[in-house]
Specification:
With 217 residues, this protein is of the alpha/beta class. It is 32% helix and 25% strand. It has six helices and eight strands, in the order βββαβαβαβαβαβα. An eight-stranded mixed sheet has the order 1-2-4-3-5-6-7-8, with helices on both faces. Helix 4 links the parallel strand 6 and strand 7. Helix 1 packs parallel to helix 6. It is globular and about 40 Å long. It starts with 9 loop residues before the first strand and ends with a helix. The relative contact order is 0.15. The N terminus is likely disordered.
Length: 217
């Protein structure tokens, strides 16, 4: 007899939300086996290098929050898959993230509003969290030296950065140097033997995010 616990399930809706350059393709997921406790918006990696809302790390971030009862919104930046508009070197993508946050803030059922992102999306999320009030931020392998330089401040919320020490695209030393310039700065978790896309380590990432969000929600 199978005595293992059933996996948590989520209802998923695919639709478009209004963005500043046109419609943005999105997926909204809601836990169905427990009460809703919060909401999160998740930003995907670089759209010109194959990044979409279906990326495995982005999907893992959604699973981490859904395990805690959060509603999760993933969306495609402008010009990505079926989203309208064109790539805008991070400028327009910041506006897209702010539009997604506004949609989720108006739609969410209850609880805190978090923001998360991976790589390019993590850098965009950092910039968005400085402008828009959020209750927490998760940045995975943030491409901060390319897309989050010259910031006017830093996010005023619990903030976790997760990166592998073998990241071949985002240099871990650059991330450490950047974090050391921030006061008080985020919590930085460097995972040993982990590269940029967390191959074989997605469950480690999921559990790290779950632990942090549980502590600060």
């Amino acid at each position: 007899m199978n005595t293992s616990s059933p996996k948590r399930r989520a209802n998923a809706e695919k639709f478009f939300i209004s963005g500043p350059a046109g419609k943005l393709e999105a997926i909204f997921e809601r836990p169905v086996d427990r009460a809703v406790t919060g909401a999160v918006v998740i930003c995907h990696p670089h759209p010109q290098h194959g990044g979409t809302m279906h990326n495995k790390v982005v999907h893992t971030l959604a699973r981490a929050f859904l395990r805690l009862g959060f509603e999760a919104l993933r969306f495609n930046f402008r010009g990505t898959e079926n989203s309208e508009g064109n790539y805008d070197s991070g400028r327009g993508e910041l506006d897209d993230a702010r539009s997604a946050l506004a949609w989720m803030d108006a739609r969410r059922a209850t609880g805190p509003l978090w923001l998360a992102g991976f790589s390019f999306g993590a850098a965009i999320a950092v910039r968005a969290a400085i402008i828009e009030p959020v209750d927490g931020l998760v940045s995975v392998a943030p491409a901060v030296t390319r897309f989050a330089t010259g910031l006017s401040g830093q996010p005023d919320c619990p903030w976790l950065i997760v990166q592998g020490d073998e990241d071949e695209l985002v240099d871990v030393e650059d991330t450490i140097d950047w974090v050391n310039q921030l006061r008080p700065g985020p919590e930085l978790l460097v995972l040993n033997g982990v590269e940029h896309f967390f191959h074989g380590k997605l469950l480690v990432l999921r559990d790290a995010v779950t632990d942090f969000v549980s502590l600060h929600s």
